[in-house]
Amino acid sequence: MRMRVLLLGEETRLGQALLAQASMESIQLQTLGQSPGGWSNEVVDQALARERPDMLVNLAFYHEQFQLGLLEQPALDEQRRFTNKLIESCVSHDCALFMPSSARVFDGLKTSAYSEKDPLAPSDPLGSLQAELEGRLRQASERHVILRFSWLLDRSGDGLLGRLLAQMQTGEPVQLAEEWRGNPTPINDAARVMLAILKQLDCDAPLYGTYHYGSSEVSSWISFAKSLAQELLASQQLEVDPIVQPVSFASQQMAGREPQNAALASRRLLMAFGIKPRAWRAQLSALIDPQNA
Asked: Is 90 exceeded by the pLDDT of residue 275?
């Protein structure tokens, strides 16, 4: 790859997945990990001046945004401060910026999958912050990629998938919201898409902008959980098929924190880059492999 890419957040699970897939194709990405005291804009600015990358991939707050869904104001303020200064640094050093975002920028009231043309209407603090940072990046530079994801799944114990696995392993009935809908997207699939985008931008394709990606097909969380349970039973990671009880979305912890409809349409990404969505069902066995924990 001719384009020099600097990755922030190599220590995150998505960062590790991206590096692994790049390595399999003999693509080298420059990395910058988190300092012991947290993310430092001064350190990042020095790296930009020293390395002169063409593109910066920002996964600095991947876990906080996509797995924990933090809403505490101090954490949000820190993300806002860091990312705003990061955007300024990228503009100053003539470096394009690749920034993940999510379906939280929508209100979740639409009955079909969201496209890039749908108006932003975040209903929680994290979604509001993501929408704000998207707007700031668009205003600051045309050379950017904003890639929105639905449900990103990794094996972190305190993450979205990890919490579901913990529920299933208690042996108690699992209460889940049947009307919570989205695209279950393993991080290996997300990394595949990110790398494919970088490779085409390396060919000077003028394809900057905002895109959606979610593994196919759209599913309710309860349907995903039932499919997951069958894979866990088949791999002997569960001894008994868990009892899954459907409950209202409003009764669940994610109500007020995440959109009820988090489904995203990936058509624009397919048309621009030719990147086809992969079925999440075919990726379940790899996703729950204990070696990936």
From this structure: yes
